[in-house]
Structure formats: structure tokens, C-alpha cells
Amino acid sequence: MSASRVCALSDLEQDAAIRVEVDGVPMAVVLDSNGEVHAIGDTCTHGDISLAEGFVDGDTLECWAHGSAFSLRTGKPLNLPAYEPVPVYAVTIEGDDVLIDPTVTKK
């Protein structure tokens, strides 16, 4: 499978998340304060909550419902109640296009 365009880079606001879906895979896409774009699984592993509705702080995305924060780089939860990581997807920027392949996860 190849990467799909999910949005324009100019559509992203710094320190905010948007929800996208690629081939049925929900993802939260974030432009962090350093200008880096991240894509992680959009569903909190503690509850069935969209992480894109959460809060970005540095390189973390916090679930609004119960406060679990996930690393945008590794997908690992940084505090309870979540203890399972979310997937992290490789992001490619081509011009103003943000591309993600849902079959390629970062390790």
C-alpha cells in the first residue's frame, strides 16, 4: 500500500490535533510546537475516546476524558489510567501535502 494524502500542511494548527481516517484506520494528526507532524492511533487505549479531541502539550497528546497522555513519538502512555500504547504512523511531507501509510508504523 502507498501513503495517502490526509490533509494539507497548511490545514494543521500548531499544538492541535485533527482526526483523519485512512483506509478505515482512525488517526490523530498533530503539528507540534517544533513544527513536526505526528500521526498516532486516534482511539485512547483506556476508553473508546477520540484522542484528536484532546490536548497537545509539547510532544504529548492527552485524552480529554480521563487524562492519559500519549507520546507522539512512541505512542506509549505516560500516565495512568491507560497502560497500552497507541500505534504511531510514519508521516511524509511533500510540498503542502501530509501523507500517511496506515500499514507503516514507527518502532
Question: What's the main sheet like?
Answer: 6 strands, antiparallel
Structural category is mainly beta
Number of strands: 9
Describe the strand arrangement of the main beta sheet, using strand numbers.
Answer: 1-9-8-4-3-2
The Rg value, from CA coordinates, equals: 13 Å
Helical region count?
0
Helix content: under 10%
Rounded mean pLDDT score:
95
| Shape category | globular
CATH architecture: 3-layer Sandwich
CATH topology: Rieske Iron-sulfur Protein
How much beta, percentage-wise? over 45%
Give the tally of structural domains. Answer: 1
Low-pLDDT stretches are: none
Question: CATH superfamily, please?
Answer: Rieske [2Fe-2S] iron-sulphur domain
CATH class: Mainly Beta
Give the termini separation.
18 Å
User: Order of SSEs, N→C?
Assistant: EEEEEEEEE
Organism: Microbacterium alkaliflavum
Keywords: 2Fe-2S, Iron, Iron-sulfur, Metal-binding
Pfam family, one: Rieske
Protein name: Non-heme iron oxygenase ferredoxin subunit
